[in-house]
Structures are given as C-alpha cells and as structure tokens.
C-alpha cells in the first residue's frame, strides 16, 4: 500500500504540473507593424508536447472567445522569422502573433484583454487576462538591415564616383553599344529612319528612365547625322519626357533646326494595338535601325521578329528577364539586364557615370562574398545544430 | 527661369525620392495614406497627360491626311475608328450593356477589340516558330548547345517526349531549376543593383538627362 502511494505521488504531481498556467505570460503591441497586431509571449513549459494544446483567448468575461489553438510544442520565438535584433524574448520561448483578418479585427488604440489556456484531454488551465493596446509604429525595425545595406551601397557608389573623377576606370566592351554608331551610320547611308522604342513601362520604372537617358545619347548622334528619328510611345508622360530629352539633344548637337516636334508621338496604351501600329510602321517605313530599350512583355517577339523580317539592324536592351530569350534570338545585339543601366555611362564616358558602374561592381562583389559566406554558415548551422550562424544570416535576409 | 527649369525639378526629385524611399521603412497608416494620396496624384497627372497623347495622335494623323502622305488612308481609318468609338461611347454613357442587352459600345469592344487583340496574340505562335528556326540552326557552338537544351526541354515538357525518352523529364527539371534559375537570379541581381544605382543617381541629381539635357 505504501509502495503504491509512493509510486502514485510523483504521477499526481506531474498531472498537476501539466495543468499549471503558463509562466511569464506577456502581451505586447506587435513591434514594427501598422497597428493591427498584438504579440503574446510566454515561457516554454516542461509539459510542452503534441498532445497538450495552447488556446489564445481574446476579450473579457463572457465575451471571451478562442481565436487560436495549436499544439504546445509549436509557435516558438525562433519560428516567428523575426531577426535577432527585434526578438521580444529568448528563441525557445513561445510567441503567437494576433493579427487583424480572418474574422478578427484589432483596432489601433483600443485595449484588448488577452489570455492563454493550456488544455490536456479534459483538463484545462487558464492564465489571468492581460490588457494590451495595439499601436501603429513609425519605424519597421525588421527592415533596418535593408536600409543599412542600401546606405552602404549608396556610399560605395559615391566613393566610386569620387575615384572616377581622379583616375580613369576600365570599362569592358559592350558590343551592343559599340553598334549604336554603326546602326545610325547605316541608316544615314541608306537614307532611312531610325525607330526607337522606350518599352511598356511608365516613368516610375528605372528601365524606362534608362531608355529615356539612352534616347538622349542616341538622338544626339542622330542629330549630328541629320537622320530621321521615330519614337512611338505607349505612355503619354514618357512621350512628354522623351520630347524634352530629344529636343535638348538636338540643341546640344547644334542642330535645333533639324528637330521635328512629331518625332516623339503617342499611339495607344493598349498592348497589342500598340504592337500592331509599330509593326505597321516597320513594314511601311522600313527603318534601317530599330532600338528596343526598356521593359517588354508578350509584344517583344511580335516587334522584333517583324523588325528582323525588314532587314533592319536591331539593338535591344531590357531588364525583363522573361523576354530576354526572344530579344537574343531576333536582335543583332542585346543589352542584358544591367547593361541597359550601364549604357548611359558607356555612351557618355563621363567620370560620374563610370564611377556608378564601379559602385555596382563593388555591390556585386559584396553579394558574391555574402552568398559564399551564407552557404558556409548555413551548412555549419545544420551540421552543428546551432542557431549561431543566424546572427550573420539575419543581416542579409529580406525580413518583413 | 533657370531655377524653375533646372534646380526646382531637381529639388522636387530629391525631396520626393528621399521621402518615398523612407516610406518603405515606415509601417504607420499615415505613411500608407501618403503613398495612396500620391498614387492618386499620379493618376490625375496621367489623365491630363493622356489628353496630351491623344492630341499628339490627332495632330500627327491630321497632318498626314492633309498632306496626302503615303498611307494616309490608314490615318483616315484611325480617325474614323476613334471618332466613331468616342461618339458611340458618349451616346450610351460609356456602358457596355443596358437592360441585359449589349450596347453598340459593348459590341465594338467584344466583337472588334477582343478578336483583334486575340489575333495579334495568336500571331505570336508563328513568330515563335520562325524565331526558333533561325536560332536553332547549329551554326556555332553556342547555338548547338541551345538546340540540344531546347530539344531536351521540349521532350521533357510533353507526355509523348517523356514516354520516348524517360530521362528527359528529370533533365528538363535540372536544366530549368539549376542552370536556368541560377542565370536568371544572376541577371536579376545585376538588374536590381543597376536600378538602385540609377535611383540614387536620380535622387541626388547626378543623372539629369531625363530632364532634357546633360550637365549644367
């Protein structure tokens, strides 16, 4: 009898421990959010197991309702994907984020009572409710690594520009840009016009801005040769900007009298109507050189294949990676991705522009080094079952 | 005047560039509200710019018709199409259907615009075939490699190909997931850095060519 009692006592104690309310329960406003979230934190317990469940309850008194339920061996701080510099507790503590959506609405500035219950079979223990107020935040600290890297890259670009002003920077040959003069010369010899397209994007896209900048350089040379230039547009704002760019280029080339106001003209914003119109221009006017700069979609092949059938020399430059195979296949020269952004520097040879290219190269070198280091650290983390490499890896994550 | 033409646009670019680059790091609803507001401004500016675009289009084709330039008939068709569509659109208050029945405006869209757009898109199939024929002629080592990769991928993407050459499915996945994906990512890294560098140059006034002109 005594032996049975001694044997049963620890079991009873363990059962009571299973029902103990969670330790160190805290409810805080979710940091770095727009105000619709609360974060519940509590210490891990010895009874954490798949058969034990946690319930998150929202509200006070009779209005209290279960808003989430999950196994006790889940929802740890380390699973929340927050970087180490914004973690609200130890990685092995529990964390649950209450967010507005899916039948739950948390209004900023309104206090809410939140509590946590532990359930094991028919037994249930509930912690006293805690009041918390969701508040909107002014800074997203999770993305500070992103800001830091942008500032670092910006500093590298400006340092490179300073260096470029002092000494010459080597620039590798880009055949597509070397061919610009050849294309313009050929058009002049044949007495045919040059067709320049700025792509499907609007003025908020960097590729469209790059296309407008390259148009300025091309127009300057076109003006010098007094060749006809046609720039059909899909976006009226891009048209207005390109009109100014072209006019200025003709002025700088000393040929303002050759400039034609209607060299830049609007067609339509509709994708295939625009494509049909430009294909028609290619077939009727038979330009000697076609430039396709900027971003493109399904119309890319329709434009370039028609241009190839007319025998025009074709130079493309795009950051639309999905259209690159079509450009490479149908154009004589293709500026791939970043070469589109390098074109302005390559054509102008200005130290300020060349310095930017060096800055980009430094950025690429940095990314390569991070890729190598990240691979080694992530592998080490798995091999030695440690979270230590995350201290470095979190710095390079795009954390939301 | 030089201030309004040069420095003032650069100042606006700098302020708006810095504010909206910073906006990305501010989760507060007011920050979102500011972005929404400025997006509306852009839409309004776009609306006015469309008037500018349509004016340019009308002017260009009016000159062609007036001078009886070669192909002026196309300009006439464009004028007839535009004026006709606008007139019918105004007549039915821009509605594509009324009382369950399609209006003339709706008919223009469904029976003319949609089939014409479909036709243009369908041409793509033929253009892909002709472009593929040109690039798959194994005239160089690179073109031969492209041809081999294309044959493997084509075999791996159709059921018959996988039946004939069972290994083509796995090879296709390897080509797409390893070779293709890594090259695409490398291009995207270069593009992203180029776009960020261009944005920095524009915000800080290093690149000014888009304003119409180079250095002062």
Structure, explained:
The complex is a heterodimer of chains A (400) and B (216). By secondary structure, chain A is α/β, with parallel strands linked by helices. Helix content of chain A is 44%, strand content 18%. Chain A has two domains: 21-139, Immunoglobulin-like (Sandwich); 172-348, 3-Layer(aba) Sandwich (Rossmann fold), CATH 3.40.50. The radius of gyration of chain A is 32 Å and the shape is elongated. With 216 residues, chain B is mostly helical. Chain B has two domains: 1-91, no CATH class; 136-209, no CATH class. Helices cover 80% and strands 2% of the residues of chain B. A two-stranded antiparallel sheet of chain B has the order 1-2. The chains are: A alpha/beta (400), B mainly alpha (216). Chains A and B meet through helix 2, helix 4, helix 5, strand 11 and helix 6 of A and helix 2, helix 4 and helix 7 of B.
Short description:
Chain A is α/β, with parallel strands linked by helices and 400 residues long. Chain A has 11 helices and 14 strands.
What is the CA-atom radius of gyration of chain B, in angstroms? 26 Å
Return residue spans of chain A where pLDDT drops below 50 for at least 5 consecutive residues: 1-6, 8-16
Classify the beta-strand content of chain A into a percent band: 15-25%
Uncertain segments of chain B are none
Output the strand order for the largest sheet of chain A.
Answer: 11-10-9-12-13-14
Number of structural domains of chain A = 2
In N-to-C order, the SSE pattern of chain B is HHHEEHHHH
What integer is the average pLDDT of chain A?
Answer: 91
Tell me, briefly, the overall form of chain B. Answer: extended
Provide the residue-averaged pLDDT of chain B: 90
What fold name stands as the CATH topology of the largest domain in chain A?
Rossmann fold
What's the end-to-end separation of chain A, in Å?
A: 61 Å
Task: Please state the structural category of chain A.
Answer: alpha/beta
At the first level of CATH, the class of the largest domain in chain A is Alpha Beta
Strand content of chain B: under 5%
Count of distinct strands of chain B: 2
């Amino acid at each position: 009898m005594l032996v049975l009692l001694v044997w049963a006592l620890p079991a009873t104690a363990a059962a009571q421990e299973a029902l103990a309310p969670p330790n160190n329960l805290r409810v805080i406003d979710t940091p770095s959010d727009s105000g619709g979230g609360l974060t519940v934190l509590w210490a891990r317990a010895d009874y954490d197991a798949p058969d034990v469940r946690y319930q998150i309850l929202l509200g006070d008194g009779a209005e209290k309702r279960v808003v989430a339920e999950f196994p006790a061996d889940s929802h740890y701080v380390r699973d929340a994907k927050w970087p180490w510099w914004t973690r609200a507790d130890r990685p092995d503590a529990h964390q649950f984020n209450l967010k507005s959506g899916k039948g739950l609405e948390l209004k900023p500035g309104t206090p809410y009572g939140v509590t946590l219950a532990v359930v094991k079979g028919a037994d249930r223990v509930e912690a006293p409710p805690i009041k918390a107020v969701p508040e909107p935040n002014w800074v997203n600290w999770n993305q500070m690594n992103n800001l830091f890297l942008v500032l670092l890259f910006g500093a590298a670009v400006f340092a490179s520009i300073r260096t470029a002003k002092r000494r010459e920077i080597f620039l590798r040959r880009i055949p597509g840009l070397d061919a610009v003069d050849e294309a313009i010369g050929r058009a002049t010899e044949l007495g045919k016009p040059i067709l320049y397209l700025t792509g499907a994007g609007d003025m908020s896209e960097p590729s469209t801005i790059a296309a407008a900048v390259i148009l300025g350089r091309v127009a300057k040379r076109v003006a010098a040769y007094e060749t006809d230039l046609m720039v059909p547009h899909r976006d009226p704002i891009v048209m207005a900007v390109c009109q100014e760019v072209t006019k200025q280029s003709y002025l700088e080339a000393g040929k303002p009298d050759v400039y034609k106001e209607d060299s830049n003209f609007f067609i339509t914003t509709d994708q295939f109507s625009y494509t049909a119109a430009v294909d028609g221009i290619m077939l009727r006017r038979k330009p000697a050189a076609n430039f396709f700069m900027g971003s493109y979609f399904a119309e890319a092949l329709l434009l370039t294949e028609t241009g190839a059938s007319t025998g025009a020399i074709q130079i493309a430059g795009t950051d639309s990676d999905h259209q690159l195979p079509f450009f490479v296949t149908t154009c004589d020269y293709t500026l791939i991705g970043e070469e589109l952004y390098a074109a302005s520097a390559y054509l102008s040879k200005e130290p300020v522009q060349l310095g930017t290219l060096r800055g980009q190269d430094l950025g690429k070198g940095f990314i390569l080094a991070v890729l190598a280091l990240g691979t080694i650290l992530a592998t080490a983390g798995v091999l030695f079952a440690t979270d230590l490499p995350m201290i470095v890896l979190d710095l390079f994550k795009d954390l939301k | 005047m030089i201030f309004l033409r040069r420095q003032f646009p650069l100042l606006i670019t700098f302020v708006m560039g810095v504010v909206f680059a910073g906006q990305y790091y501010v989760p507060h609803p007011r920050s979102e509200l500011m972005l929404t507001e400025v997006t509306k401004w852009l839409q309004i500016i776009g609306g006015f710019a469309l008037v500018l675009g349509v004016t340019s289009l009308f002017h260009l084709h009016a000159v062609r018709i007036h001078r009886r330039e070669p192909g002026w008939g196309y300009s006439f068709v464009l004028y007839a199409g535009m004026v006709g569509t606008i007139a019918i659109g105004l007549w039915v208050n821009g509605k594509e259907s009324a009382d369950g029945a399609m209006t003339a405006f709706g008919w223009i869209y469904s029976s003319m615009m949609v089939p014409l757009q479909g036709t243009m898109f369908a041409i793509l199939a033929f253009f892909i075939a002709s472009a593929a024929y040109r690039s798959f002629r194994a005239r160089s080592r690179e073109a031969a490699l492209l041809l081999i990769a294309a044959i493997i991928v084509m075999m791996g993407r159709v059921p018959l190909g996988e039946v004939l050459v069972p290994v083509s499915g796995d090879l296709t996945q390897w080509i797409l997931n390893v070779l293709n994906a890594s090259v695409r990512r490398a291009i995207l890294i270069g593009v992203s850095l180029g776009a960020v560098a261009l944005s920095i140059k524009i915000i800080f006034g290093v690149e000014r060519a888009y304003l119409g002109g180079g250095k002062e």
